[in-house]
Design goal:
It is a single chain. By secondary structure, the protein is of the alpha/beta class. Helix content is 21%, strand content 32%. It has 3 domains: 175 residues, FAD/NAD(P)-binding domain, CATH 3.50.50.60; 120 residues, 3-Layer(bba) Sandwich (FAD/NAD(P)-binding domain); 67 residues, Enolase-like, domain 1 (2-Layer Sandwich). The strands form 6 sheets. Strands 1, 2, 3, 4, 5, 6 and 18 form a 7-stranded mixed beta sheet that branches. The protein has a 5-stranded parallel beta sheet with strand order 8-15-9-10-11. Strand 4 and strand 5 form a beta hairpin. Helix 1 packs parallel to helix 6. The N and C termini lie far apart (58 Å).
Amino acid sequence: MDHFKYLIIGGGMTADAAVQGIRSVDPVGSICIMSAETDPPYNRPPLSKALWKGETVDSIWRKTQDQKVTLLLGRTVTRIDAKEKRIVDSGTSSYSWEKLLLATGCSPRRLPFDDKQIIYFRTFADYRHLRTLAEEQKRFAVIGGGFIGSEMAAALNLYAKEVVMVFPGEGICDRVFPKELSEFVTDFYRKKGVQVVSKAKLSGLETKDGSFVLKAGNKGDIFVDAVVAGVGVEPNVELAKALGLKVDNGIVVDEFLRTGQADIYAAGDVASFFNQSLGKRIRVEHEDNANTMGRQAGRNMAGQPEPYNHLPSFYSDLFELGYEAVGELDSRLRTVVDWKEPYKEGVVYYLENNRVRGVLLWNVWGKVDVARALIAESKPVREEELKGRLH
C-alpha cells in the first residue's frame, strides 16, 4: 500500500492550486492526485471561450506533474476508511494518507429523457468530442440559456455553425441579468444569427433521417446535427457522504476549509463555505474560487492555516460583449443599473435590505476589487450613492 502525506481526490483546477499551496509551504512532502478524468489538470474556462477563438490546446495545461506529484488518472474511489486513512481505487490499489483533500467538483445535471447522444459540456474530453463534430456537422442545438449555454452558443456561432438555443426561461441569462439586459442580450444573439427558442419545454430527443429531433412541445420539432447541453451542475458529494461528512449544498467546511473530520479538507466547486462579506454560506463554481480556495486549502493542509475570506469573482465572453462579476447575481433581487452607455458599458448592482450583495461589471474592467469592498461594507447604501461609483 502506497502512502502519501497529501492525497487529493479530484483532478481539476482546485487540485492543481492545492498542490501549489502545499509546495509553497512543504517542498518535499509526497502528494498524490487521483482523478476520474484521463487528462491531467487543465484550465477549464478556455473550453467554452479561448479554444474556439484560436487559442492552442497547449495553453490550457497546468503542468501539475512538474511539482513532484503522483498523478493517478482515470481512477475513482471504490472504498474509503477515514479512521484508517485508507482508500481503494477502481484499479483495486490501496493508498493511505496523512491529509486528505476532497476536490471532487461537480457533474452536469441531466435532462429527464434518453440523452445518450447529448454532450453535457464540462470536460476537455467533451471539448474534443464537440470540436470533432464541429468539423463535420453544420447545425447545433444548445440546450440551456445560462452561463455555459450562452458561451457555447457564441463559440459555435463564431465557428461558423448554425446554432439554435433552447431553454425554458424568458431570455438568455434571465436568472442573472435584470429583465431589460436579458432582453437586450437575447435580441443581440438573434442579430448574430443564433436562433433563440425561449419558453421551451423539452420532452425528448429522437433520431430521424440521420438528424436529431428535439421535441419542444408548442415550439415544435427542432432538427439539428448535434446537441450540446449546459443546464447546470450538481456537487459531487457521494464520497463525503460515505465518510459521514456534513453535506448541505456541497461539503460543509469551516473557515480553514476543514470538514467535520480530522485531517480531511474540501475545496472548490464542491465546498460550502461561510463568506463574511455576504454573511451566509455559499458554494461557487468558478475559476477564481477554484484557484484561490484550492491554494489556501493546500497551505492549510501543509501547516500554514489562514481563514478563507475571499469573495470569488467570475467572468464571461458573449461575442464582443463581456463582463466580470462578484457576489450574488440574482435577478430576483432589487437591481440598480448605472449605464455609461446603455447595454454597452455599465454597472448593475444587486441589493438586499439596502446593501449591495452583487455587482455585474458590464464591459467594465479592473473594478472587481472595488466591487468586493463595496459588498463588504456593513452600512446600507442609497441608490443615488451608486451612480458613477464604479465607472
